[in-house]
Design a protein that fits this description.
By secondary structure, the protein is an alpha/beta fold. It contains 13 helices and eleven strands. InterPro entries: DctP_fam (IPR018389), TRAP_DctP (IPR004682), TRAP_DctP_sf (IPR038404).
Length: 334
């Protein structure tokens, strides 16, 4: 019913790209769900500045952070319906538009470091995944880093068994569901905007996030411990409504693509710097204890979560998984 309402509303609205050919400026509404000072929030603002400068004022990007325009539950349908021109959703959400292929990024311990991530997101596999979005009414412009995820709770999670019995918030992903059930936890799918309050009142007991998300959303005021598990990578795909994009003059698309290329470099650097700064600020705040893992502890996590990869082959094409393993340099646990 909600989807039908969006389509009706979209039919009543003019298409900004079509108007752009006869009037300036073109308005791009860029909606996202994190804080303005999170890496994605900063990158969105940087793209907005570049777009205005490089287009000579022909483009105005309006950035709507913190789910002010659309939240997790609505943003993908809103993009398809033309109620927003641009999003940068986390990759788990993209299955709403396409297949389960983007869930491969949720596989635990798939990437050893950021360089391994970029061999996928900045290589042929990443381009193929983004190009595949056109059939679903979206154009994939870029991948943006956020960072490696850490586990939080009101107790230290040094070993996989420490998660057992907890209600853990996740994004909508079967891979993440399997991850949590494999650890003996109860996965709870929840919009990002609802997480802090849910942690505060005990509706969920913990979650997984890069440190920058954890800190900028003030989760350290609702969780006593953050364990540096580095168990998964969280990234975004910058998507634009296809009808809007194809309605722009070719020269303007080129300008925006160049601006997005520069914004992507900025975004990835902001993710590295933002997570380091957030970790330092978190440790200085004394609000939550940061728990490090020994090499033995980390091995235990990796071994405990190895079955998630096998389960994923029921949903994600095995050939794609094998290509990603080769490019990322992932070696399955013996």
């Amino acid at each position: 019913m909600r989807r039908l309402l969006y389509l009706f509303m979209a039919a009543m609205l003019p298409i900004p790209g079509a108007l752009a050919q006869g009037a300036d400026p073109v308005v791009i509404r860029f909606s996202h769900v994190v804080a303005p000072d999170a890496p994605k929030g900063r990158a969105a603002e940087h793209f907005a500045r570049l777009a205005a400068e490089r287009s000579g004022g022909r483009v105005r990007v309006e950035v709507y952070p913190n789910s002010r325009l659309f939240g997790d539950k609505d943003e993908m349908a809103a993009l398809q319906a033309g109620l927003v021109e641009m999003l940068a959703p986390s990759l788990s959400k993209i299955k709403v538009l396409r297949s389960t292929e983007f869930e491969l990024f949720d596989l635990p311990y798939l990437f050893a470091d950021v360089a391994a991530v970029h061999r996928i997101t900045q290589g042929p596999i990443g381009r193929e995944l983004l190009d595949g979005m056109r059939a679903q009414g979206a154009v994939g412009l870029a991948f943006w880093d956020n960072g490696f995820k850490q586990m939080s709770a009101n107790r230290p999670l040094r070993r996989p068994q420490d998660v057992r019995g907890l209600k853990m918030r996740i994004q909508p992903s079967k891979v993440l569901e399997t991850q949590m059930t494999t650890l003996g936890a109860s996965p709870v799918v929840m919009a990002f905007s609802e997480v802090f309050t849910s942690l505060k009142v005990g509706a969920v007991n913990g979650t997984e996030n890069p440190v920058s998300n954890f800190y900028t959303q003030n989760m350290h005021h609702a969780q006593s411990h953050l364990t540096l598990t580095d168990h998964g990578w969280l990234g975004y795909a910058v998507l634009v409504n296809r009808t809007f994009w194809e309605g722009l003059p070719a020269d303007l698309r080129n300008v925006l693509e160049e601006a997005m290329g520069e914004a992507t470099v900025f975004a990835n650097r902001a993710a590295l710097e933002g997570n380091a700064a957030a970790l330092a600020a978190l440790e200085a705040s004394g609000q939550a204890e940061v728990v490090g893992l020994s090499a033995e502890d980390r091995r235990a996590w990796r071994e405990a979560l190895a079955p998630v990869h096998e389960e994923a082959r029921r949903r994600i094409p095995a050939e794609l998984i094998e290509r990603v393993y080769r490019e990322a340099g992932y070696a399955p646990s013996p």
